[in-house]
Specification:
Layout (H helix, E strand, L loop, with lengths): L2 H7 L3 E8 L5 H13 L3 E4 L2 E5 L2 H16 L3 E8 L6 H31 L7 H21 L7 H8 L1
Antiparallel strand pairs: 1-3, 1-4, 2-3
Helix pairs in contact: 4-5, 4-6
């Protein structure tokens, strides 16, 4: 963990977003879930999500909360220190596990692309498709790194595979 993250994590402070979203339209719920995943939030329970307390994560949650309220939902944002049940260690492990899974998926895709490029030429276009997927994989790595708040160990393997 870098010094900046460590200094901001002293005392186990977390941002907790709770929300209530109307059941209809369904796309609204899907959009909120995708946005939560995109900013790296992990669910504690239904409609309760957490991120480490940092300026950038606070801004992400604030924007999302505004969207939720604007579109007819309700919600609140709190700074919390967990004293029982969810512990800092458990939350940190969950965040790292989420990022490790994303890094592993990326490493696997990079390996498949590399093997396709190294394999015998085929008329099916697989080598060309593999080469064209490289910029997409690099963008995906950047997206994962952006929400890897605690330095998940799978990052190095994904970078090497890419």
């Amino acid at each position: 963990m870098n010094d900046t993250v460590e200094s901001k994590r002293q005392g186990g402070r977390w941002l907790v977003l709770t929300h209530q979203i109307p059941p209809e339209p369904a796309y609204f719920r899907v959009r909120v879930r995708r946005r939560l995943a995109g900013i790296g939030a992990i669910p504690l329970k239904n409609s309760v999500y957490v991120l480490p307390e940092r300026d950038d994560t606070r801004e992400d949650f604030e924007w999302l909360l505004r969207e939720i309220v604007r579109d007819g939902g309700e919600g609140s944002l709190a700074v919390a220190r967990f004293v029982d049940g969810f512990t800092d260690r458990r939350l940190e492990a969950a965040l790292k596990a989420e990022r490790d899974a994303a890094y592993a998926e990326l490493a696997e895709a990079a390996t498949r692309a590399r093997e396709s490029l190294a394999g015998p030429s085929a008329d099916d276009g697989a080598p060309r498709q593999a080469a064209e997927s490289l910029p997409r994989l690099v963008r995906k790595l950047d997206e994962i790194r952006e929400i890897d708040f605690l330095g998940a160990p799978g990052r190095e393997e994904a970078e090497q595979a890419l």
